[in-house]
Design goal:
- The radius of gyration is 22 Å and the shape is elongated.
- The longest helix has about 40 residues.
- It is an all-alpha fold and about 325 residues long.
- The chain contains eleven helices and no strands.
């Protein structure tokens, strides 16, 4: 098994995550706008159609870098902590005579621990998404209202309207409004990352093994760690993102309806109303733009993240 590349430290994950988040949000904002309008209760053309596809970009820019940075700092930190704990346990087992060579990611080659690394990636990605949602949800609320043409399509006006509720509902009411859709956003993002990131990590592992078999990075016995290039990470990110996007589209539709509702609505109420009125079809509204957007987004997001990690860790010349 190929040795693991060094774990990105906190500052590397912070900077690389910020770069990746800003890059992907700026690149794919128009597709996100079209997807939001397709899922809007008002309909595509009443919400703006193909006009003003950069409405709400201001709020997206404010939240993209810190949201992605929060995610990757949490993801890499939790993943590293879980991997170290597993490696220590395997080492104790080996010393105790139970056998088992430690392979890639600390997984025992001889046996039963092959499923633990994907589970660790799922847990790390889930906690990363919860952390990121602290930033992402408020910016999503403002952004989607601007994208749907509410408040004149202005992010600043949408934010001002929310803050203006302070006189009537107080700080707690403003807080609830700015975090409207928190529950459904987490419900959407956690299943998405539980699918995307273990798949991305598995594809990266396959890429490392392929390189080692080809003699790249000391595969003939030098023992040097080898990681995938930014281009390879982009391809793997695109594949894993497309798969996760298609499966989680119904949750995305629910999240959009909750965030765009004129009054606070419960997820279950929106779900039952939508099913009773239109059946299953609306739950896959915007699936084409969503899969296309997230497939391209996965390539840009995880490709640029890998590029930044490789560069910051001094491996740019070897990995590009």
């Amino acid at each position: 098994m190929p040795p693991q590349p060094p774990q990105p430290p906190f500052t590397t994950a912070l900077l690389a995550g910020g770069i990746a988040g800003t890059t992907v949000d700026l690149s794919l904002f128009p597709l996100d706008t079209l997807k939001t309008r397709l899922q809007s209760q008002s309909g595509f053309f009443p919400s703006g159609g193909f006009r003003g596809i950069y409405r709400g970009v201001g709020s997206a820019l404010v939240g993209s870098a810190p949201g992605a940075a929060f995610f990757f700092c949490t993801y890499e930190g939790v993943k590293d902590a879980l991997r170290r704990r597993r490696q220590d346990a395997l080492l104790l087992d080996t010393v105790g005579g139970s056998g088992g060579e430690i392979g890639e990611g600390g997984v025992g080659v001889g046996g039963e621990a092959g499923w633990t690394a994907p589970v660790e990636h799922m847990l790390a990605a889930s906690l990363g998404e919860v952390a990121a949602c602290a930033v992402r949800v408020p910016t999503e609320v403002v952004k989607q209202r601007a994208q749907a043409g509410l408040h004149g399509g202005s992010s600043a006006a949408a934010l001002s309207a929310i803050l203006g509720l302070y006189r009537s509902v107080g700080l707690a009411g403003v807080w609830r409004e700015i975090y409207r859709g928190w529950g459904i956003t987490v419900m959407r993002e956690v299943p998405f990352t539980v699918i995307q990131f273990p798949l991305w990590e598995a594809l990266k592992g396959w890429g490392r093994r392929r390189k080692m078999r080809g003699g790249v990075g000391g595969g003939s016995g030098g023992g040097a760690a080898v990681d995938v290039s930014a281009g390879e990470s982009a391809v793997f990110g695109s594949i894993s993102g497309a798969v996760a996007a298609g499966i989680t589209t119904p949750l995305d539709v629910l999240k959009t309806r909750v965030m765009l509702s004129k009054e606070k609505a419960k997820v279950f109420t929106v779900l039952t109303t939508l099913l009773a009125s239109h059946g299953i079809r609306p739950f896959f509204a915007g699936i084409g733009p969503r899969v296309m957007w997230i497939s391209a987004g996965g390539a840009i997001f995880l490709g640029s993240y890998q590029w930044a990690v490789n560069a910051l860790q001094g491996g740019l010349s070897r990995h590009i």
